[in-house]
Amino acid sequence: MIKIGEVVNVVGLRGELKIYPYSENKERFETLKTVYFDKAEVTIEQVRYKDNLVILKIQGVDDRTGAEACRGKEVFMNDEDLEELPEGTYYVKDILGFLVEDVARGVIGTLKDVRDNGAQDLFIIEKNNGGELLVPAVEQFFTGVDLDRKVVLVDLIEGMYED
Description:
The protein has 163 residues and is mainly beta. It contains three helices and twelve strands. The protein has helices spanning 28-31, 64-68, 92-95, and strands at 2-11, 16-21, 34-37, 40-50, 53-58, 74-77, 99-102, 106-116, 121-127, 132-136, 142-146, 151-154.
């Protein structure tokens, strides 16, 4: 299961749910017939959008009271419903836990998380010597992934990494 959002509020009286999507591709909800709320499968009846939120109508939730009961639930999708990515693009779930290797320094840590920072994603690296390092996931610093070795390759500039 892949976590794709969270129910953050309700809309109106017909049981619609406001979903905060965890992906840039909020339109993925349109291609799904079902999603999971806390591991319980639900059928999607209607999808629409308001600003950066997804408004979902699901089968079996037809009033505000039913919708309120869903508030705070995490939304998941099946792994097999993921779309294929272009070459050189990776799902976060596929590279989490990989070693992070800098061109000049060798292995500097482990990829702990990837966070959306608005302008670009940030790699959160748990450094070998303790602490965290935030690296923008842009071409200047991120040079690739070696899937065979399970390594994320970076090229950090002077002053970006401190021992």
